[in-house]
Amino acid sequence: MTIVIFELPDGTQRKVTAEPGTVLMQAAVSNGVDGIVAECGGNASCATCHVYVDARHTELVGPPNDVEDEMLDFTAAERRPTSRLSCQIQLSDALDGLLVHVPEEQV
Ligand code: FES
């Protein structure tokens, strides 16, 4: 299992576990993590699953692809260099312990 930590805007953390291969957005939604809306269901077309990958993990997670990169221009909260759409991140053993920050707003 892969452990992921979602840090909410108020600083509280939600630790969830997911099978490797699970999409990060799905891990959040399945576990009722507040602040991950995912209106489009994971098609990289709504930008409401926006997260900030913790600086310690950005290299490991990697950059967005071209479609995601365009959608990241439409996030409700400011886009940062560490911004990713959680529906485009597939969990793996290498990402065990991943920390992501949930933005203040998604819509
Ligand atoms: S769920 Fe819509 S862009 Fe990720």
Helices, strands, pairings?
Blueprint (H helix, E strand, L loop, with lengths): L1 E6 L5 E6 L5 H7 L19 E4 L4 H4 L4 H6 L11 E3 L12 E4 L6
Parallel strand pairs: 1-5
Antiparallel strand pairs: 1-2, 3-4, 3-5
Bound molecules: FE2/S2 (inorganic) cluster.
FE2/S2 (inorganic) cluster (FES) binds next to loops.
Task: Describe the fold and architecture.
With 107 residues, the protein is an alpha+beta fold. It is built from three helices and five strands; from the N terminus they run E-E-H-E-H-H-E-E. The mean pLDDT is 97.
Give a quick set of tags describing it.
107 residues; alpha+beta; 5 strands; binds FE2/S2 (inorganic) cluster
Summarize the structure.
The chain has about 110 residues and is of the alpha+beta class.
Strand residue percentage: 15-25%
Evaluate the radius of gyration.
Answer: 12 Å
Largest sheet: 5 strands, mixed
Determine the mean pLDDT: 97
User: What's the overall geometry?
Assistant: globular
Lateral arrangement of strands in the main beta sheet:
2-1-5-3-4
Number of E strands: 5
Ligands: FE2/S2 (inorganic) cluster
Flag low-confidence runs.
Answer: none
- Cα(first) to Cα(last) distance is 31 Å
Q: Give the helix proportion (percent range).
A: 10-25%
Instruction: Spell out the helices and strands N to C.
Output: EEHEHHEE
**SS-derived structural category:** alpha+beta
Number of helices: 3
